[in-house]
Design brief:
Shape: elongated
Helix content: 25-40%
Distance between the termini: 30 Å
Radius of gyration: 22 Å
CATH superfamily of the largest domain: SPOUT methyltransferase, trefoil knot domain
Largest sheet: 5 strands, parallel
Number of helices: 7
């Protein structure tokens, strides 16, 4: 998978991709990441990429030209000819990021992520340039950089061969609209708090049944909304 990220704060994003699963994915050849400074694509000699909104209002809005230029430049230098890029803009008007959506995006070969900032992005970017608008939650962030890292992490871990164990994705939370079952490790007894005996039994069928029951119990208790689907 190829991920291109357009931002005015590339130094915020680059370190995250140098750690943990995202770093492993790149070392395994499953992922290539390029981070682009939006200011490199503005025709303005002062590197300006925003302006006051028409009609008045607080704050500044990203102008469309630098973003269109950035996306067009990225597409003109596609890592693999013939691969269609999915252009994603982050914003509160977008589809909410879920595990189901992350799985769909993990099937893409190339995604371009546009990180907004300030009071937002000119509406023409969402209407005529982006293929999809995505929100990571019903709250306001200063910019789209955190959203880009969240989406990338959620998607990349779903790529075949990225995680070490073949079952890592199968039993994670939300994989079947259920929260994940409880996990325990050594010691067997910590300050009087004991590990459930079934997990020490060695009976794989009973352990499987216990995990299914616990996943359902936790989902009913903490996220009953998931069971409606």
């Amino acid at each position: 998978m190829f991920i291109d990220i357009i931002t005015i704060f590339p130094q915020v994003i680059k370190p995250y991709f140098g750690e943990s699963i995202l770093k492993i994915a790149q070392h395994k050849g499953k992922l290539q990441v390029r981070v682009h400074d939006l200011r490199d694509y503005t025709p303005d000699k002062h590197k300006k990429i925003d302006d006051r909104p028409f009609g008045g209002g607080a704050g500044m809005v990203f102008t469309p030209e630098p973003i269109f230029r950035a996306v067009e430049a990225i597409k003109s230098k596609m890592p693999k000819p013939g691969v269609k890029a999915e252009v994603i803009l982050f914003g509160l008007h977008g589809e909410k990021l879920t595990q189901k959506l992350a799985k769909k995006l993990s099937l893409k070969k190339h995604i371009i992520l546009i990180c907004g900032h300030y009071e937002g992005v000119d509406e023409r970017v969402g209407n005529f340039l982006a293929d999809k608008e995505i929100s990571i939650g019903d709250y306001v962030l200063t910019g789209g950089e955190l959203a880009a890292m969240v989406l990338s992490d959620a998607v990349v871990r779903l790529l075949p061969g990225v995680l070490g164990h073949k079952d890592s994705n199968r039993f994670e939370s939300f994989s079947n609209n259920l929260l994940e079952y409880p996990q325990y490790t050594r010691p067997e007894n910590f300050k009087g708090m004991a590990v459930p005996k079934v997990l020490l039994s060695g009976n794989h069928e009973k352990i499987r049944e216990w995990r299914e029951r616990e996943a359902l119990r936790l989902t009913r208790k903490r996220r009953p909304d998931l069971l409606k689907d």
